[in-house]
TrEMBL record:
This is DoxX family membrane protein. One of its GO terms (biological process) is methylamine metabolic process. It is found in: Membrane. It is a multi-pass membrane protein. The keyword Glycoprotein does not apply. One of its GO terms (cellular component) is plasma membrane. InterPro entries: DoxX-like_oxidoreductase, Methylamine_util_MauE. The chain crosses the membrane at residues 12-30, 50-71, 78-98. The keyword Transmembrane applies. Residues 10-140 form the Methylamine utilisation protein MauE domain. It holds the Pfam family MauE.
């Protein structure tokens, strides 16, 4: 396999991993906007009303960005947004852990207070950092196999 083909396949894998995770995370929250709002509010970082609106909007953003990544459309921009989301999640989880909050991250629905032994902060941070790396790869190398970018715009690396 050539180096270019390996890069394209790696890009496809990164697109699908990050994209599918975002779609699933958003889809699991979209049917429960109050729960999503409460999950964001549990981090106790944003003013209560701002956190509520972030909780309402976040599932929609996750789904849109995830679908664009799965399709390979506007890959660089979608990956940049996905990477920023993952890094924001890492910061949110890390600050909750550092402050001694005992909450479920709410990443795949749920959220809110949990017993201290139910927190999974370390695993959640590692997971989100790995997903951020998928996004960072795509920001640097957005070209990938089976992408709408390639179909619509050719073999341009700048999409």
């Amino acid at each position: 396999m050539s180096a270019a083909a390996l890069r394209d396949h790696t890009g496809l894998l990164a697109r699908l991993v990050l994209g599918v995770v975002l779609v699933v995370a958003g889809a699991l929250k979209i049917g429960n906007p109050l729960g999503a709002a409460r999950a964001v509010q549990a981090y106790d970082v944003l003013p209560f009303e701002v956190a509520r609106w972030v909780g309402y909007a976040l599932p929609w953003l996750e789904i849109v960005v995830g679908v664009l990544l799965v399709l390979g459309l506007f890959t660089r921009v979608s990956a940049a947004i996905g990477t920023l989301l993952m890094l924001a999640f890492v910061v949110g989880i890390a600050q909750a852990w550092a402050r001694g909050l005992t909450i479920d991250c709410g990443c795949f629905g749920g959220g809110g207070q949990v017993a201290p032994e139910e927190t999974k902060y370390g695993r959640e941070i590692v997971r989100d950092l790995a997903l951020a790396l998928c996004g960072a790869w795509l920001v640097a190398r957005p070209g990938s196999t089976w992408s709408l970018d390639r179909l619509l715009f050719g073999d341009k690396e700048s999409v």
